[in-house]
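INTERNAL AUDIT FORM
Audit reference: QA-55
Scope: verify that the stored structure record matches its stored sequence.
Auditor: D.O.
Record contents follow.
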Amino acid sequence: SMPALWLELRPIRAVAVQPYVDAAAVTMTLGVEAETRITPAQTTPNCPFPEKISIVPPTPAQVSIGIPIDVPFTGINKIVETQFAGRTFPEDGSGSVNVTVKRASVLPSGERLLISLLVNAKEKSSFFGFGGEANVHIWGRPVLDQAQQTLRLTNIELAVESEAAFGLLGAAARAAMPHLQKVLADKATIDLKPLLGDARKKIAAAIAELERNEDGVRVAAEITSLNLADIAFDSKTLRVIAEAAGTINVSITTLPGL
């Protein structure tokens, strides 16, 4: 299962547009700029509201939130394990060797990611059907696929020690390595949609707290889209930058008596 995520909002600036007055209503645009992040642990930040309101030029009424989602690689490993463990390559069974993934994990390595697979390889063409286990290490440069909302690895390379690990399986197994490399290049993606789904729930819950319909005030809030924008990582954490967009509309039908 995915690790629990927490949304942190820290307001840093309050803005407003000069009100527009017509015969039917007074329309005002107010806004708040906030630093946001999503973390795997609950925090208790000190968040005083900005002391003054800045007047800004008219802008479209919308909610736009850029959110860094910080997930430890222990959490990413759960996603990778779910996606790879139990799969057999080639998936169509066309190769002379079947390579079944038993365990998978991912670690950062400089500007690349290292996916480590514990695999079981078994010859199909040999009468003896030789087989064995080995740790296959795959290097790849992470690229964000915004359309598919996935993290894809490019420039796939197999670590040298991985090829040597198949030495006991003979020429057939070694011949299968380039094919395995091609398959992994096509399949080496990490689906980040579970992260987005949980983040959307947290944002929607935070926005829902703003909604009200009482004392002559009606507040309607909605998140209309949430997409991945960028990625970064260090030795312990993968940071995914998500962009949320939506609207907040406030209607005042009655004013309190003075």
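Auditor finding: record pair retrieved intact. The chain has two domains: 6-72+193-252, 73-189.
Action required: none
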